[in-house]
């Protein structure tokens, strides 16, 4: 598997980004000011993540996604490790990631990768998304922000 930055903004893999954020309208508010990294294996795009600079010291991972047939094989963990390594090399001091209160698997994965819960943004999802999001039988309402020092 190789992970490379996508340079051509015309070939953004929205179907992958939408796995992590169900609103294309919202994706388009940040994707053009962010960098998109694509994981490829045997000529197929199988995963991605987005890095957005928050300030001089902080970078945020957004839209980390692995195509469904390739999930639960360790690729998400490798994508996170790549984002952490790259951000550290670039001189950032903190990396953050936000997910929903109902995203139990993601909360597990991020904490296993060294992130700690650093903030909660109540009603983040209920205020921004028109459609109700239900995961693991729980309504997704609040954003859980996790951070890791680099
Ligand atoms: N439920 C329970 N455990 C999970 C889940 C889940 N949904 N997903 C991953 N894990 C666990 C794995 O069992 C594994 O545990 P282990 O280390 O003890 O063996 C560990 O997390 C790492 O799993 P990976 O196989 O590396 O994860 P994967 O390749 O499936 O990628 C990802 C994880 C990116 C969340 C993927 O499932 C996905 O694309 N989901 C849909 C999109 C999504 O929800 N993205 C995140 C939104 S938040 C954001 O983008 C900032």
Average per-residue pLDDT, rounded, comes to: 96
Shape: globular
Order of helices and strands: EHHEEEHEHEHEEE
How many helices? The count is: 5
Percentage of residues in DSSP E strands: 35-45%
Secondary structure: helix percent:
25-40%
Characterize the largest beta sheet: strand count, sense, and whether it forms a barrel.
Answer: 7 strands, mixed
**Which ions and ligands are bound to the chains?**
acetyl coenzyme *A
Q: Based on DSSP secondary structure assignment, what is the total number of beta strands? A: 9
Instruction: Identify low-pLDDT runs.
Output: none
Q: Could you give the distance between the termini?
A: 24 Å
Which structural class should the secondary elements be placed in? alpha+beta
The radius of gyration is 15 Å
Give the strand order of the largest sheet, numbering strands 1, 2, ... along the chain.
1-2-3-4-5-9-6
Which features does this protein show?
36% strand; alpha+beta; 150 residues; two-stranded antiparallel ribbon; binds acetyl coenzyme *A; globular; seven-stranded mixed β-sheet
SSE map:
Elements: E1 2-5, H1 14-20, H2 24-30, E2 35-41, E3 44-53, E4 58-66, H3 75-89, E5 94-100, H4 104-112, E6 116-121, H5 124-128, E7 134-135, E8 138-139, E9 143-149
Parallel strand pairs: 4-5
Antiparallel strand pairs: 1-2, 2-3, 3-4, 5-9, 6-9, 7-8
Residues 19-20, 61-66, 71-77, 97-99, 103, 105-106, 108-109, 112 line the site of acetyl coenzyme *A.
């Amino acid at each position: 598997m190789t992970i490379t930055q996508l340079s051509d903004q015309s070939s953004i893999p929205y179907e992958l980004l939408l796995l992590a954020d169900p609103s294309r309208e919202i994706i388009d508010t940040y994707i053009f000011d962010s960098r998109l990294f694509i994981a490829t294996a045997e000529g197929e795009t199988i995963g991605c993540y987005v890095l957005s600079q928050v300030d001089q010291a902080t970078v945020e991972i957004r839209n980390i996604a692995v195509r469904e047939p390739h999930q639960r094989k360790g690729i998400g963990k490798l994508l996170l490790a790549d984002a952490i390594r790259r951000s550290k090399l670039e001189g950032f001091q903190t990396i953050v990631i936000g997910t929903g209160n109902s995203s139990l698997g993601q909360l597990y994965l991020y904490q296993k990768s060294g992130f700690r819960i650093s903030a909660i943004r109540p009603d983040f999802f209920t205020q921004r998304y028109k459609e109700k999001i239900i995961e693991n039988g729980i309504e997704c309402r609040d954003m859980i922000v996790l951070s890791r020092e680099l």
